[in-house]
Amino acid sequence: MCIRDRSEMKLKFIIGVVGILSACGFTNAPSLDTTQEEQDNNWVIGPFHRPEGVNPVISPQPTEFYCPMRKQQVKWEESDTFNPAATTKDGKIVVLYRAEDNSAQGIGKRTSRVGYAESKDGIEMKRMGSPVLFPAEDNFKDQDWPGGCEDPRVAMTEDGLYVMLYTAWNRKKARLAVATSRDLKNWTKHGLAFDKAYNGRFNDLFCKSGSILTRLKGNQLVIDKVDGKYLMYWGEYAVYAATSDNLIDWYPVLDEKNELMKIIQPRKGHFDSLLTECGPPAVRTKHGIVLMYNGKNSGKTGDADYPANAYCAGQLLLDGDDPYKVLDRLDKPFFAPEASFEKSGQYKDGTVFIEGLAYHKRKLYLYYGCADSRVAVAVCDDVKKLKIK
Q1: Domain boundaries, the chain
Q2: Looking at the domain that runs over 54-265+346-386, which CATH code has it been given?
Q3: Peptide bond between residue 47 and the one before it cis (omega within 30 degrees of 0)
Q4: What DSSP letter does each residue of 305-353 carry, written as one string?
Q5: Do residues 187 and 164 lie in contact, with contact meaning Cβ atoms separated by under 8 Å?
Q6: Are 85 and 116 within 8 A, CB to CB?
Q7: Is the model's pTM score more than 0.85?
Q8: pLDDT single digits (tens) 207-251
Q9: Is the pLDDT of residue 102 over 50?
């Protein structure tokens, strides 16, 4: 008898013994079923609930400003307002949202700019009349003319420097770019995030959606480090990572083959079967690092519980010391399109696109884009997981 045959007989014997012991009620018998352990989601941030009767909190309006690109007045947020970043300053929540003019029809064909709104309660918004980040007469026209500045994420250092990662869209290639500010209203563009990495190897890489690692300190989420370096998760199709010494120049993390290291990617049979796109800044918790992300569902190979092409929100747990090591991942979304305004607009398949997370008055406020057309908020009252002893 060969070794393989003996091994198979031994395995069958063990399985048989386990079955007999279980049938006889011996609860201490070893179990081959780890489902309960795998589904222990005590690390998940949430639950998040939609405040009744308040959403959407930001909608389009015919506000005008002088566009330096078009050399004329434009209604810069007339068509759609969506995909917001969020942070806090001076006791208020600040939401920085993507706004589109009405210069064309179709997703990605209009010009996007970043608008500013602030709120004392996270719901009632006071908006500025002009965008705070937009295609300008500057050194970055080759990056963001004519498509604009899209899908911001914002995080803050302990000394009050705000770092924005956004998509620079020239209608040829979408690329991750960096801007900084002290007041959230006046921004300095620094160009492409990966411009200096590996002798320009990733300069022309299609890349977007950067989520910088943060942690709760006092009453604010602030940027954190791992092994002395800043860390960012990024990516649309899959989730990748990058590190930085200065928050401006980022170096993608490579694997043993010198290629981009994939941390997660789409899964068949799940809500994230087409895309796994990074959401708001990642958060260090007492369980590890939690990354919220946006999953797009396939109509053929996805989760039949959700519409084809719908965007739902998932969560991922990574090791706090080894931030590329996945410890757990939700099989079902923690947030999915429900309201009518989340299923109508530019993207009628249904979208809750999470990008902004703010800690305010002992609650978490999650801001998200609704069907590429509106901005809404959901609130989490349980923030105990964020407090690290």
Answers
A1: 54-265+346-386
A2: 2.115.10.20
A3: yes
A4: TS-TT-EEEEEEEE-SSSTT-EEEE-SS-SB---SGGGSSSS-TT-BEE
A5: yes
A6: no
A7: yes
A8: 999 999 999 999 999 999 999 999 999 999 999 999 999 999 999
A9: yes
